[in-house]
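Example 3.2
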Amino acid sequence: MAIVDRAIARFLPAVPKPVVRRISERYIAGEELEDALRVVRRVNAEGKLATIDVLGEEIANPDEARSIASAYRDAFEAIEREGLDSNVSVKLTALGLGLGYDLCRENLTEVVADAAARGNFVRIDMEDSSTTDDTLRLYRELRESGYDNVGIVLQARLKRTLDDVAALAELRPSVRLCKGIYVERAEIAFRDFEAIRSNFMLVLEALWDAGHYVGVATHDEWLVEQAKRGVTERGLGREDYEFQMLLGVRPALGDDLVREGHRVRI
């Protein structure tokens, strides 16, 4: 898989931008904030919640990181102005984590503070394992500073995740649980499909046992069914959890979940 990823990365710059845009438009709202707002309006009309992610992990200097933080503040202003049901997700590398911890903390705090002032919420995405410790540290620092409008993402692929659930327990975090897309070393990550599935359910049960709100982020129908069974067995209400899916991926599955009365976030 890593070889294929590198091959694609080398090939993409040679692909004409209109072709890339045509292929990706199903999965990415667009290049401007108004594109994202248009998609959120549609998603909300379908009875679904939304989260907006400003793409930009490959930032090269502090000004670019601050620009992305500013773009998130613009998004919150627009969400509030238009009365949309959407929060945001942030990638810490886009806010400057690769350039410096303090720079990233400054940008992230500004975004979270702006969201808090508007009654909105920020989800901190989890990236590859080289960023996991700093991501969890930043989350903890924000919570200890009094910000409750911030959540975290945990990846079932990583072998450390059950320990991270236990370490975060006293904060009662809002957690997005996903399989994880990063190809990691076998010493730290599960590689087998069924092992990842199994750990996903172990982590989900541990989160629910601890009373956490969980965004069950998967397009895997088996995991969706297992999660639905868990919801029923635990007597969870509609406000106690949600399913999360990516734009353009398995939309019919999301529609089915909405019809069944579940909260779904795109």
